[in-house]
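Message: I would love a firmer grasp of how sequence relates to backbone shape in proteins. Thank you; the sequence and its tokens follow:
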Amino acid sequence: MVVLVPRQIRMAGMTGGVPYYGGRFTPAQAYAAAHPPHPPHPPAPPPAAAPVPSQGDPLEALQHLLEAGVLTPEEYDELRARVEP
């Protein structure tokens, strides 16, 4: 009696080296089915931004930049002198 076996199954020796054979799971597929991956972490919410003052008042905008730490007091005084009439 002669049994015909596909070449890739003969070469792998039915040890799981082939991705699929005979309608059965490979060992790797069985492991993956028994050990599902962890769900991904939800994305972190963006940091809350401070409200930006209206575009109409440059002194208010400069004060906001000073409070936010973007400007030093010296820079604030210099820019305020330029803006004030």
Summary: The longest helix spans residues 58-68. The chain has a mean pLDDT of 74. Residues 53-85 form one domain. The CA atoms of residues 1 and 10 lie 17 Å apart.
